[in-house]
């Protein structure tokens, strides 16, 4: 009797979550898929099942997941923003031009403030103060160690990155579409740049990303051991081979520096971030959250990118050979 391994699908969609504690991985994956399915149906696409994996790293920083069965909103594991279907009728509005102009001017000012080499302020102290009080996971990522086991500790940055690298390595022979939300986009950028440059990513989608914030860019510049100035751009990872789409809601405070095209260069394949303003319609119990992942996942813009990826025809043998040769040239 012969045993055959089931052949992997040739495409995979990988999602890495963002800041703060989360419900259990299995439930979170279910809610992500429900959000995507909702978007498919809303915009007239036929939903088809696809290979979908969630990179879950909340358990590295939190001892227990959030519990949707807890009703006491003062309980530390109370889940205040579960998946909820869209209640908005129009989710395509990308925000008014006046607000965009204000944000663009703010970006130039804040970049000059934080990225100047001759700044009179202690930028490191400001970053640590803001992050430790507002974005605690981010502060842990850049500044803290976490337990590996009972006997040892390691930097949170390395441990979280390894979680994503492991998943990417497992799927390295497939065509990968990577969706990174919030702080997950920082982890994704770091892994593609510093840990797994040999693993090709067909398409990267960043949603609600803080990669445009000068404090984050400063940290990346430090890892490159390069000077950080308002005139220096960061590189797009070479292993993104088709597109980097960056989706942001103007009301999303985490993505307030939404314009990544100004901050990242195009790689040798001609790929760089393409910014798209969207409307995140997440709302629960009358409270809106334009940063919520569920709202981003069901937007027309993200669903269109995903649909195109899933429907892309497989290349012929000659095309695959040509792509293989290009990869060898890029790696050399």
TrEMBL record:
Alphabetical UniProt keywords: Hydrolase
GO molecular function, a single term: hydrolase activity
Keyword Isomerase tagged: no
Keyword Hydrolase: yes
Signal peptide: none
InterPro entries: AB_hydrolase_fold (IPR029058), PGAP1-ab_dom-like (IPR012908)
Any Pfam family matching the protein: PGAP1
Residue ranges annotated for the GPI inositol-deacylase PGAP1-like alpha/beta domain, each copy included: 158-226
Protein's UniProt name: Alpha/beta hydrolase
Organism: Agaribacillus aureus
Lineage: Bacteria, Pseudomonadati, Bacteroidota, Cytophagia, Cytophagales
């Amino acid at each position: 009797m012969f045993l055959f391994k089931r052949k992997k699908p040739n495409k995979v969609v990988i999602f890495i979550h963002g800041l703060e504690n989360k419900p259990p991985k299995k439930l979170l994956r279910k809610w992500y898929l429900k959000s995507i399915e909702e978007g498919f149906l809303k915009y007239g696409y036929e939903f088809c099942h696809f290979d979908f994996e969630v990179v879950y790293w909340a358990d590295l920083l939190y001892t227990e997941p959030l519990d949707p069965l807890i009703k006491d909103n003062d309980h530390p594991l109370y889940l205040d923003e579960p998946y909820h279907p869209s209640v908005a009728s129009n989710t395509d509005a990308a925000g008014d031009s006046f607000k965009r102009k204000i944000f663009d001017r703010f970006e130039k000012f804040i970049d000059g403030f934080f990225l100047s080499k001759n700044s009179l302020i202690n930028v490191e102290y400001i970053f640590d103060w803001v992050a430790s009080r507002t974005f605690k996971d981010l502060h842990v990522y850049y500044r803290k160690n976490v337990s590996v086991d009972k006997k040892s500790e390691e930097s949170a940055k390395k441990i979280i990155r390894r979680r994503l690298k492991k998943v990417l390595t497992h799927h390295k022979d497939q065509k990968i579409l990577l969706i990174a939300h919030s702080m997950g986009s920082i982890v994704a950028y770091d892994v593609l740049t510093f840990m797994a440059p040999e693993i090709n990513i067909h398409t990267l989608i960043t949603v609600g990303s803080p990669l445009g914030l000068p404090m984050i860019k400063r940290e990346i510049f430090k890892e490159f051991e390069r000077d950080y100035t308002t005139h220096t751009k960061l590189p797009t990872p070479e292993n993104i081979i088709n597109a980097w789409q960056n989706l942001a809601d103007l009301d999303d405070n985490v993505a307030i520096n939404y314009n990544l095209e100004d901050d990242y260069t195009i790689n040798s394949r001609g790929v760089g971030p393409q910014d798209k303003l969207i409307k995140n319609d997440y709302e629960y119990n009358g409270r809106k959250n334009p940063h919520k992942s569920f709202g981003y996942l069901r937007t027309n813009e993200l669903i269109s990118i995903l649909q195109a990826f899933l429907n892309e025809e497989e290349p012929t043998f000659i095309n695959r050979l040509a792509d293989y040769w290009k990869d060898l040239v890029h790696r050399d």
